[in-house]
Amino acid sequence: MNIDINGAYTPQRTGSGRFAWLNSYSILGFFFYSHYLIGVLLPDVTGLTVIPFLTVFLVAMTRRRAIAADKQVLMFLVTAFAIYTFSFLLSEFSEYSNYKYLMFLLKVGSLMLVATLIEKHRVGDFFFGVSVALIIFLVIAALYFFRASEGLDINTRLEVGVFNPIWIGRAAFECVLISTLILGRRRWHVAIILLLAVFVTYVSGTKGPLVSFLVVALLFLAKKMRASSFKYVAGSIIGLGVLAAVFFVVTSSLDAESYFVQRFLMSVPDGSSDEILESARTTMWPVSLALLAKADVFNLLFGHGVGEFATFYFGQAQNFRFYPHNLLLELVIEQGLVVMIIFLLYIIRLFAKSVSGFKYLMVYFVVNAMFSGDLILNEYIFFYAACALAFRKCENDVRVFAHAASPR
Question: What is the pTM of this model?
Answer without folding.
Answer: 0.89
